[in-house]
Amino acid sequence: MLIAGFWGAMPELKYKRIMLKLGGESLCGKGQVGIDPNSVAYLADEIQAVKAHHVEVGIVIGGGNFWRGNDPYAQGMDRASADYMGMLATVINSLALQDALEKRGMYTRVQTAIEMRAVAEPYIRRRAIRHLEKGRIVIFAAGTGNPYFTTDTAAALRAKEVDADVLIKATKVDGVYDKDPMKYRDAKKFERLSYNDAIVMEQVQVMDNTALSLCMDNDLPIIVFDLSKPRSVERAVLGEPIGTIITK
Questions:
Q1: Short-list 127, 59, 143, CA closest to 96
Q2: I want to staple 164 with a disulfide (CB 3.0 to 4.6 A). Which of 19, 59, 227, 232 is the partner?
Q3: Domain count of the chain?
């Protein structure tokens, strides 16, 4: 059976519940810091295209457009304090995306690993699953709530906690290469990659090793793709070959 969509006839829905990992830089557009309304609108449109297929969507956003605990300008600070600042940056991004999604008629919930009840729900696993079952988009903010862990690890952790079928990581390149395709024209793209190979590829940081190991231990597939290509998330959940898939 085929589904008619933006790209014409498409395969049946492959993933019913997904965890989408977005970098904070995806919200700032061509700028280096802050939030660009056009970039947020683009993300909301991409997610809306996925929701049209009744996919259950969880989202984890980084805070790199504002602050990272391991950034050079954070050197000299206490690492735990710097990481907590990064977690707060992810909350700002989550609220911005929530606003854009709800303006398009989608129901959302932001859940934070650090309690701040005035702006979002505290993260409660069973409540998050119930929100997903009801068709609400759940945005998981503040990382894992602990310093020294990246938002990649938070995405892998939340994906397993809510029983997501796949972790989809949006990047600036259309998959995983053996070296930086921005610098080397002869860079080779992998259509499929094992967890072990992704971990040992130090020259190309796909995700941090903690996140990769968590996915490997729990057999959670990862799809890495270029977010700038329209309807790329939709194509991924419909099972089209896009980017690089990391599995056993």
A1: 59
A2: 19
A3: 1
Q: Give the integer Cα–Cα distance in Å for 74 and 94.
A: 22
Amino acid (one-letter) located at 102: E
Residue 1 domain-assigned (yes or no): no
- Give which of 109, 163, 160, 114 is closest to 138, Cα–Cα: 109
Q: Residue 170 belongs to a domain with what CATH number?
A: 3.40.1160.10
Residue pair 131/114 in contact by the 8 Å Cβ criterion: no
Which segments of the chain have a pLDDT < 50?
1-8, 10
Which residue's structure tokens are 């911005």?
96
In sequence order, what are the residues at sequence separation of 6 or more whose Cβ sits closer than 8 angstroms to the Cβ of residue 50? 18, 57, 233, 234, 237
Whether 204 maps to a domain, the answer reads yes
Which helix or strand (DSSP H or E) is residue 223 part of? strand 222-226
Pick the closest to residue 53 from 102, 84, 16 (CA basis). Answer: 16
Residues contacting 9, CB < 8 A, separation 6+? 2, 3
Cα angle value 180/182/183 (rounded, 5°)? 70
**By residue range, what is the domain housing residue 54?**
17-247
- The answer to whether 8 and 47 are in contact (CB under 8 A) is no
In a domain, 7, yes or no: no
The rounded distance, in Å, linking the Cα atoms of 48 and 44 is 6
Q: Please give the pLDDT value at position 203.
A: 62
Q: What pLDDT digit, counting tens, does each position of 173-187 carry?
A: 888 888 877 788 888
Query: Does 226 map to a domain?
Result: yes
